[in-house]
Amino acid sequence: MTKRLKLALMILLIAAIATGSSVLLLSGSGNGYESVFKAGVKSLTQPKSYTVKARVTGFVNGDKELDEEFVYLMNGSDNYDCTIDHMTNDKILESYELDGMRYYNIDHENKEYDAYTLYSNSAYQAIALDDNGTENETLVRIVKLFADFYMGNAKNQFVREHIDGGNRYVITLKKEQLPELALLMLDFFNESGDTLYGMRDTYMRVYYEDMKQLLRDEHLLRTGKEMDERVFDLRSEDEALRDAYSAFYDEVDEKYQAIGKAVYEVGAMFVEADGTYEIYPSTKDMYIKRLSEGKQLLDYQDAFDYPQNLDVKYVHGEFDVSDEGYVTRIYVTGEGSVQDVTGKTYAGVIEANVDLTGYNETTIDASPISGYTERVQEEKSYKTEDVTETVEFLGVTYEISYTRYVEE
Questions:
Q1: What is the tens place of the pLDDT at every residue in 353-395?
Q2: What whole-number distance in Å separates Cα of residue 73 and Cα of residue 68?
Q3: Which residues of 285-301 are buried (b: 16+ CB within 10 A; e: fewer)?
Q4: CB count, 10 Å around CB of 109?
Q5: 229 phi and psi, to 5 degrees?
Q6: Are 200 and 262 in contact (CB under 8 A)?
Q7: What angle do CA 384, 385, 390 make, to 5 degrees?
Q8: Cβ atoms of residues 98 and 115 within 8 Å
Q9: For residues 70 and 80, what is the distance between their CA atoms, to the nearest angstrom?
């Protein structure tokens, strides 16, 4: 799955959460909100230890594209966290913070890790508590005001159900039931997407597949000689060479800018490595045309640079609160769709399930890294060496002196 397709899935998850579900934990008035709000505050701030296990899955056009699991254990200032990508069965992150030390990049096969000393308590406290253990009233009121404003009439859609050991608060919203602010955000995204992503053209944009090759070709054309490859590195060591290179670069760039502006004052131009080019009325048109013709873009460009027509079909959230007043489970799911720049639709379903357990009972088992040793970086000795080189560029010879480090 591409990074931007994964981003599109996460946009749907954010939409599902932001449009109602998780705001239940922030709201504080009517229909049981007060008890849930207090449970959220208590769960975040009062326990000295707890365990969080979460799993997020996502499907695009029926195919699973995202499946990650997150485990976090907190016990005072000590914690353990681990993220597993179930699509590849890889641990993409695992670390311990114990007794003022952080252990990371853990290699279980060779029984090694990297480590460093922590200089402050790394445990996160979402809402500060005073000496009596009560929440900061000013902060709580601000959060409540924001939540009430955001949720609007959607607050009336929450339903409480009795479950073993507590209560479950459930909300299901179709698009037309979403809070007015959420609908405005969707409309704003869809109407202003190009501006939001900084992709609305205000000048002639020129995209080079390989600028260095264009400079080599231009140098050969002007001088009849191949460009010395050392120029690309040595220009940083000599002011005169750096200025000459910058002027040369600007001249080549201005040549293509002028070609593009002769067709469109505001638009886009794609220059191939061999110097051939195509000119488009906009960067967006360039994307659409090149992708439809099977032509490549630059490495950092793809169809999701211009997401459009983001839509949310529904969001659903469930929040379990124990009789002791702790949040024990959060389940959020949503379905929606988004289109790429070519108009291709990606229908997505996202699901997040979070279990919160072990309040004031969680301990961290450090035995999995017991006996492991800190990874030792091989220490190398270096000395300085004065170097003088001669390089020719655009028919001018430059004598460049600099100091470099070499291994003894």
A1: 999 999 999 999 999 999 999 998 777 888 899 999 999 999 9
A2: 17
A3: bbbbbbbeeeeebeeeb
A4: 5
A5: -65, -20
A6: no
A7: 145
A8: no
A9: 11
> Is residue 232 very low, low, confident or very high in pLDDT (cuts 50, 70, 90)?
very high
pTM of the model: 0.74
CA 249-252-256 angle, 5° bins: 135
Report the 10 Å Cβ neighbour count for 98.
17
Distance CA(308)–CA(200), nearest Å, equals 14
Structure confidence at residue 109 (pLDDT): 92
β-strand partners of 315: 173, 334
CA–CA distance, 239 with 335 (Å, rounded to integer)? 57
Q: Annotate the chain with three-state secondary structure.
A: CCHHHHHHHHHHHHHHHHHHHHHHHCCCCCCCHHHHHHHHHHHHHCCCEEEEEEEEEEEECCEEEEEEEEEEEEECCEEEEEEEECCCCEEEEEEEEECCEEEEEEECCCCEEEEEECCCCCCCCCCCECCCCCECHHHHHHHHHHHHHHHHHHHHHCEEEEECCEEEEEEEEEHHHCCHHHHHHHHHHHHCHHHHCCCCCCCEEEEECCHHHHHHHHHHHHHCCCCCCCHHHHHHHCHHHHHHHHHHHHHHHHHHHHHHHCCCCCEEEEECCCCCEEEECCHHHHHHHHHHCCCCCCCCCCHHHCCEEEEEEEEEEEEEEECCCCEEEEEEEEEEEEECCCCCEEEEEEEEEEEEECCCCCCCCCHHHCCCEECCCCCCCEEEEEEEEEEEECCEEEEEEEEEEEEC
Rounded Cα distance, 315 and 138, in Å: 30
Distance between CA atoms of residues 284 and 193, nearest Å: 12
Tokens of 59: 């499907």
> In residues, how long is the chain?
408
Q: 40-49, 122-131, 152-161, 176-185: lowest mean pLDDT where?
A: 122-131
Q: How far apart are CA 150 and CA 182, in angstroms?
A: 8
Q: What is the phi/psi pair of residue 66, to 5°?
A: -145, 130
pLDDT average, residue stretch 162-181: 83
Report how far apart, in Å, the C-alpha atoms of 12 and of each of 113, 187, 308, 332 are: 36, 15, 13, 11
Q: How far apart are CA 86 and CA 83, in angstroms?
A: 9
